[in-house]
Write a structure and sequence with these properties.
With 678 residues, the chain is of the alpha+beta class. The strands form 4 sheets. The protein has a 5-stranded mixed sheet, with helices on one face. The chain has a 5-stranded antiparallel sheet with strand order 7-6-14-13-12, sandwiched between helices. The chain has a two-stranded parallel ribbon with strand order 3-4.
Length: 678
C-alpha cells in the first residue's frame, strides 16, 4: 500500500509538473501571438452599415455604434468600481483567472448539466469578446483561460480594464461605455452618475434582458443589485447608496422608427447573397425615393380603416423599389405585409386570365355572353347577382364579370393561366381548380405589383430590386446592380391590349376611385367575405400595389378593392408622378366624356349589414348579426358609414354597366349586396 501510494503521488507530481509546463508553454505561445495595445483599440466589434436613399441622404445607420474612446484616466471611477463590483470583485488579485469562480462554475455545470454561472473574470470576458465566440464548451473555456493568463502578462490591469470598458457590448448596438451612455442617457460616459453607472454595469450580464429601453423595471432592479454590491465591497458609503436612485434616471428619447425600416429590412437581407464583406463598414446605396416613401406612408395611414393593416409597394420601370410600406406602424409590428404576407388577390388575379386569353388570340373587342356557367359542378355568379348577356371583353374586364373570367379560364386552360401567373413572377403555389380564375391562390403584394409592372413595361420582365450598389467606407465598389432587359414575357401587342383593359377598368369600371387626372391603368381585387382589398395599377412609369385587410384574415364589412385601396393608390400616385411628364398609353381608350368624369365614390358599396356578403362565387354568406359583434371584432363598428335604407339601395355597377351597354333597366334591380372579386 505504501508503494502504491508513493507511486500515485509521484505520478500526480510528474503529471502536475507536465501540465504546468504545458500551461506555461501555451501561455507563452499565446502571448507571442497577441496584437499590440493600439491594434486592439482600433479593431472593430462588428460591421457598421449606412443605408442611403436614392438622393444619397442617409436613411438609417445600422450595426454596432461606437462612442469616444476613453482612457483609464477619463473613465469615471464610479464606473470602474461598479463594473468590478458586479463582474469581478477580485479583479486586482487573481492572475486573470479566478480559481474559486472557475471551481464554482464547474460544480454548477456538473450539478445542473448546463453552464448557468460564468465564473469568468473581466480579463476572461475581454479575451472571449475579442478572440473567441460565446459557445459554451470546455474547449472554449480552456482557450479563454489561456488567453486571459497571456493578456494579464502582456498588459497592465488598468489597460485591461480600459480595453474592457471601451469594447464590451451593452445592448442596443452599443459597444463601450461611451456609446452605451449616449444611447441610453444622451450624454458621454465621462459624465456618468452612480445610478447611471450602475445601470450600465448591470447590462453586461444580459444586455437584452436588462436594457432600460426594453424593460425599465428589470434594469432598475439589476442596478439596485449593482449598488448593493458596491456598498458591500466598500466602494460607496450607505449615504451614497441611498442617494442613488436608478428609477429617477432620465433616459434619452427613442429615435422614431418609421416605415422606411420595412424597406431597409427587406433590402439588407439580400446582402448575404450580394457581397462577402462581413467586417469592414459598408455603405449601401438604395433605390428608395424619400418623397415617395413619405407619400406612401401617409396614404396608408390615412386610408386604412381602423383595426386593419395595409401595405404598399411602388416600382419604377426597371423594377427599382421607390416606396415600400409593410404595415401601419413599424414599431408595433415589423412584419412586412408587402413582401412576407400571402393573401388571396381576388379579381386582381384576372390579369393572368385575360393575358392568357389575349395571347391565345382573343381581342378586347371580342364578344362573349355573360350567362350562367357550369364548370365541373362549379357555378360562379357575378357580384351584381345578375347576368348581362352579350358583352365585349373590355367591358367584362372593366366590371369584373366573374362568369366571363370563368369561361376564358376554361377556354385557355386553367393550367395555362397558372403558367402565365408564374411567368409574370408569382412565386407562391398556384392551384389549377376552376375557381382559381377568381384569385383563390395566395400571393404576395410585391409579386402582384411586379406582374402589373411587366405589363406596363410592354411585356418585359420586371425584377424588383432595392440595392443599387455597395461600397466600403473608402469607396471601394463591392457590388453594383446590373439591369436585365432581356426576358420578354408576352408580345408587346398583348401587353398593349392588356393595358387597354386595365385602363378601361379605371375609366369606367370598378377602379374609378383610382383616377388621378392622367392616364392610369389598374385593377381592383376583393376576396370572399371582404377579407382582402387590393388595387394594383400604373401611370407615368410607376407601378403601385396596395393591399388592405386584417392580419387574422377576418371579414371586414365594407372592404372593397375599389374603395380604400384605390383611394390610397390615388393619394400616393398624385405625389409620386407629379414631377414626371404625362405619358399616354400605346392603346388609349376613347370614351364618352360622361364616362371620364371622376366620381367621388367607389363602386360596389355594400350595405352595412354583413349578412349581405357573398363569397367568391357570388353566393350569400351567412354570418352573425352585426349587433352581436364587439368593436374589436368589427373594426367598422367604430366608424359607421352612411346606411342606405333597404328600399333605396341601388345596383350602381349594374346601372353603369347598362349605361355602357346602352340598355334600359327592366324593372327595379334587387337590393345590391357586397361585391367580392372586383
Amino acid at each position: 500500500m505504501r508503494r502504491f501510494v508513493g507511486t500515485t503521488v509521484k505520478i500526480a507530481v510528474v503529471g502536475g509538473l507536465a501540465a504546468l509546463v504545458a500551461l506555461v508553454i501555451a501561455v507563452v505561445v499565446a502571448m507571442s501571438s497577441l496584437p499590440g495595445y493600439s491594434e486592439l483599440k482600433s479593431s472593430p466589434n462588428g460591421q457598421m452599415i449606412r443605408v442611403h436613399a436614392a438622393d444619397g441622404s442617409v436613411l438609417v445607420s445600422l450595426g454596432p455604434s461606437y462612442g469616444q474612446w476613453l482612457t483609464s484616466g477619463e473613465i469615471p471611477q464610479v464606473m470602474k468600481d461598479a463594473m468590478i463590483a458586479v463582474e469581478d470583485r477580485r479583479f486586482y488579485r487573481p492572475p486573470g483567472v479566478d480559481p474559486i469562480g472557475v471551481a464554482r462554475s464547474v460544480k454548477v455545470r456538473f450539478d445542473t448539466g448546463r453552464w448557468s454561472q460564468g465564473g469568468s473574470t473581466i480579463t476572461q470576458q475581454l479575451a472571449r469578446n475579442i478572440f473567441l465566440t460565446n459557445t459554451r464548451t470546455f474547449g472554449r473555456k480552456f482557450r479563454e483561460m489561456i488567453l486571459a493568463l497571456a493578456i494579464e502578462r502582456h498588459f497592465s490591469k488598468e489597460q485591461i480594464l480600459e480595453l474592457y470598458l471601451n469594447k464590451v457590448y451593452f445592448g442596443g448596438g452599443a459597444y463601450g461605455i461611451d456609446a452605451a451612455s449616449r444611447r441610453f442617457f444622451g450624454h458621454g460616459a465621462e459624465r456618468l452618475s452612480l445610478a447611471e453607472a450602475a445601470i450600465i454595469a448591470g447590462l453586461v450580464k444580459a444586455p437584452s434582458n436588462y436594457s432600460p429601453t426594453a424593460d425599465a423595471q428589470a434594469a432598475i432592479g439589476r442596478a439596485g443589485v449593482v449598488i448593493q454590491t458596491m456598498l458591500e465591497t466598500g466602494k460607496i458609503g450607505r449615504a451614497e447608496a441611498q442617494d442613488a436612485r436608478p428609477e429617477a434616471v432620465k433616459l434619452a428619447p427613442e429615435p422614431r422608427q418609421n416605415s422606411v425600416r420595412y424597406f431597409t429590412d427587406w433590402a439588407l437581407a439580400q446582402l448575404d447573397t450580394l457581397i462577402d464583406e462581413t467586417v469592414e463598414p459598408i455603405e449601401v446605396w438604395t433605390t428608395l425615393d424619400q418623397p415617395m416613401q413619405r407619400a406612401a406612408d401617409t396614404a396608408i395611414r390615412q386610408n386604412v380603416p381602423k383595426g386593419m393593416q395595409g401595405a404598399l409597394v411602388a416600382l419604377d420601370r426597371d423594377g427599382a423599389v421607390r416606396a415600400m410600406v409593410g404595415g401601419t406602424d413599424y414599431v408595433s409590428s415589423i412584419y412586412n405585409r408587402s413582401t412576407q404576407a400571402v393573401r388571396q388577390p381576388g379579381s386582381a388575379f384576372k390579369l393572368f386570365v385575360y393575358l392568357a386569353a389575349l395571347e391565345a388570340g382573343r381581342k378586347p373587342t371580342d364578344t362573349v355572353v355573360d350567362a350562367p356557367v357550369d364548370i365541373e359542378g362549379w357555378r360562379p355568379r357575378n357580384s351584381s347577382r345578375r347576368f348581362s348577356g352579350e358583352i365585349d371583353l373590355r367591358t367584362a374586364f372593366a366590371f369584373s364579370i366573374n362568369t366571363v373570367a370563368a369561361k376564358l379560364g376554361a377556354e385557355v386552360g386553367f393550367s395555362t393561366v397558372a403558367d402565365m401567373a408564374r411567368r409574370f413572377g408569382i412565386t407562391t403555389p398556384v392551384n389549377t381548380h376552376p375557381s382559381m380564375v377568381l384569385g383563390t391562390s395566395d400571393v404576395r403584394l410585391i409579386d402582384m405589383t411586379r406582374a402589373f409592372a411587366a405589363v406596363s413595361r410592354g411585356g418585359v420582365a420586371v425584377v424588383p430590386y432595392g440595392i443599387v450598389k455597395v461600397t466600403t467606407a473608402r469607396n471601394d465598389l463591392l457590388y453594383e446592380h446590373k439591369p436585365d432587359d432581356m426576358r420578354v414575357l408576352v408580345a408587346p401587342g398583348v401587353a398593349a391590349e392588356m393595358t387597354d383593359l386595365l385602363q378601361t377598368a379605371v375609366n369606367t369600371g370598378t377602379a374609378r376611385a383610382a383616377q388621378i387626372g392622367r392616364p392610369v391603368a389598374g385593377k381592383t381585387g376583393t376576396t370572399s367575405s371582404n377579407k382582402d382589398g387590393w388595387f394594383l395599377g400604373f401611370s407615368s412609369g410607376i407601378t403601385t400595389g396596395v393591399w388592405m385587410g386584417r392580419d387574422d384574415a377576418r371579414a371586414v364589412p365594407g372592404l372593397q378593392g375599389g374603395r380604400a385601396p384605390a383611394k390610397a393608390f390615388a393619394d400616393f400616385m398624385r405625389v409620386a408622378v407629379a414631377p414626371r411628364p404625362i405619358v399616354p398609353f400605346e392603346t388609349e381608350v376613347t370614351l364618352p366624356e360622361w364616362q371620364l368624369e371622376p366620381d367621388d365614390e367607389a363602386y360596389g358599396m355594400p350595405p352595412e349589414d354583413e349578412g349581405a356578403m357573398v363569397d367568391e362565387n357570388g353566393f350569400p354568406i351567412a354570418s352573425a348579426p352585426a349587433a352581436s359583434r364587439t368593436p374589436d371584432q368589427d373594426p367598422a363598428a367604430t366608424e359607421p358609414e352612411e346606411v342606405v335604407p333597404a328600399g333605396e339601395q341601388r345596383d350602381e355597377i349594374g346601372e353603369l354597366l347598362d349605361g355602357v351597354l346602352g340598355r334600359s333597366r327592366r324593372g327595379e334591380a334587387e337590393p345590391q349586396e357586397s361585391r367580392p372579386n372586383q
